[in-house]
């Protein structure tokens, strides 16, 4: 069976492009903004990883940002190759019409006239505008949206439906989303502290991230993965970790891999009480104590529907640069025998598992590989 490869990547994070983001991680130059949100207890100021150049919560700004990333990924394709290219979007902001209508009628208390627009509306228009196949799909499974989109892209190419697939993850500041997380007491007032006894929640972030998947030769391959939907309830994971353990084990089994075949893990690590405990318990039930694992969210926040792609691309870039980033902000760990990296680790190739465990019990483990030069 031919390898499904990751051919090109583009991101926009709170630091800028991929080079700027990787530089901020290497220098540990972490910068957050402050925003104010309305809560049941009044106005609350919270940290937020915002774009340097704001993308507004309006249709034109989002459309233009999506088109720019997709164009960068497809510019090198010939007209014929573009006709064989599908487009899949992963986001938690699937229906802008709903978000805008709630914002206008509830928060601004004014009349709202629906424009009948959604992220998928933009995807179809952009696909046509850039000369792509016209086939689009939008996946909204909370924090696993763009991770599931990558798995679907692999399925389409593996079954010879398309030659190429562009996968895009998008998440911008949302008043509704921020207020929702605040109401569930999941937001930190300071920093994310993955797997730390004193963790107090997540910090949200904005991101646009895209990859081009295809059969062309590349050092990076998308080996496979697994997605399931099984959890304690819609907003919380079972703390014993069995829901997460299941998806990790089946992802390995689907590729005839053993836990010790994995070079390192990229964890989901939201720094919330239940999620981190469930994840560390799952890791301890599958892997030996010497497993290397790290967390990326403290660098640029939890980017929700875009995190599947953003964290994939940044992790790949770090390996290309020769290291696995350390986990910052954490000091007292919830499990002493399983601790994330406290120092950058030299690494240039290997087999890596990337985990995403989201709301609604939707959980994804991806496995990627970089060949040795």
Description:
Helices cover 32% and strands 23% of the residues. It is an alpha/beta fold and 373 residues long. The protein has 2 domains: 5-214, Peroxisomal Thiolase, Chain A, domain 1 (3-Layer(aba) Sandwich), CATH 3.40.47; 220-370, Thiolase/Chalcone synthase (Peroxisomal Thiolase, Chain A, domain 1), CATH 3.40.47. It is globular, with a radius of gyration of 20 Å. The strands form 4 sheets. The chain has a 5-stranded mixed beta sheet with strand order 1-7-6-4-5, sandwiched between helices. It has 11 helices and 14 strands. It has helices spanning 18-27, 59-74, 79-82, 96-107, 119-129, 145-158, 175-183, 242-254, 273-286, 297-300, 307-320; strands at residues 5-12, 33-39, 42-48, 85-90, 136-139, 164-171, 207-214, 220-229, 264-266, 293-294, 323-324, 345-346, 350-357, 362-370. The mean pLDDT is 92. Helix 9 links the parallel strand 9 (264-266) and strand 10 (293-294).
Task: State the gist of this model.
The protein is of the alpha/beta class and 373 residues long.
Share of β-strand residues:
15-25%
Q: CATH first level of the largest domain: which class?
A: Alpha Beta
Which structural class matches the secondary elements?
Answer: alpha/beta
The termini sit apart by 22 Å
Please count the beta strands (DSSP E, at least 2 residues each): 14
Helical content (DSSP H or I, runs of 4+): 25-40%
Kindly identify the CATH topology of the largest domain.
Peroxisomal Thiolase, Chain A, domain 1
